[in-house]
Design a protein that fits this description.
By secondary structure, the chain is mainly β. The protein has 2 domains: about 30 residues; about 210 residues, Porin, CATH 2.40.160. Helix content is about 10%, strand content about 65%. The chain has an 8-stranded antiparallel beta barrel. The chain is elongated and about 80 Å long.
């Protein structure tokens, strides 16, 4: 009996030693999250899972007053973060875009010339908790401001006897403008699949307000401001350290 107990104890000790050694080796192979002071990274947002496209980071979705409708526009920018101390990171967003399409000459473009300018800034903070293997959970907050302006120019012409009279040409200009401000409390995680590269997901509880106006012929029409509070759409992101 004593011999059996001794063998059992020796077997348990050996099993424990092998399990401990195996766990230690597995732990050594785990990719640790890069959350040390001085670490910096850029991050990108994934598009829909159907195409897995990598996009910029959306700061806000603004609404423009259209002709009998309200048109949406997304303000997209670049994002990055920097760890000011271990497990504490500040994040920043910046957006700027300008585009022009069409022609003011209605004989060349039915909708005239449409010029759009977007601008946005955002700032936030992340507090990373104790990592779970290669996963770094975090909580934080963020504020963002975005604006967009759109100008539509049309050269109106008169016809005389079926011919265009250039002397009667006048210019019509419509200006649309929108701005928005948001505050968000967020929670998410970064999963480091490779050293310096992580994928993650994030949800947020946000408060946002936006306003817009349309100016045409010297007359300005304001669109009633909108305010919303709720859980925002979850996002999936790619994090690349440098």
């Amino acid at each position: 009996m004593i011999r059996f107990v001794s063998k059992l104890l020796v077997t348990l000790v050996l099993v424990g030693f092998v399990a401990t050694a195996s766990m230690a080796q597995e732990t050594e192979n785990i990719i640790r999250p890069s959350t040390k002071s001085g670490s910096a990274a850029m991050y990108f947002s994934f598009g829909g899972l159907s195409d897995l496209g990598i996009n910029g980071v959306q700061l806000a979705g603004l609404l423009f007053p259209g002709e009998g409708t309200v048109d949406g526009i997304k303000v997209i920018g670049a994002g990055g973060k920097f760890y000011i101390s271990d497990d504490l990171a500040i994040r920043g967003l910046l957006a700027f875009a300008t585009s022009s399409k069409g022609d003011a000459d209605l004989t060349k473009s039915a909708n005239g010339k449409v010029s759009t300018t977007q601008f946005g800034v955002g700032a936030g903070i992340e507090l990373h908790t104790r990592p779970v293997y290669s996963i770094s959970p975090y909580f934080g907050g963020q504020v963002a401001f975005a604006s967009a302006n759109q100008t539509t120019t049309k050269n109106l012409v008169a016809k005389t006897g079926g011919k265009i009279s250039t002397l009667a040409t006048t210019t019509s200009e419509t200006k649309l403008s929108a701005s928005g401000f948001g505050i968000e409390v967020l929670a998410g995680f970064d999963w480091y699949v490779f050293r310096g590269i992580a994928i993650g997901a994030e949800y947020g509880l946000n408060f946002s307000t936006a306003s817009a106006s349309s100016t045409a012929g010297g007359s300005t029409t304001d669109v009633p401001s909108s305010t919303s509070i709720g859980i925002g759409v979850g996002s999936v992101h790619l994090l690349v350290h440098f």
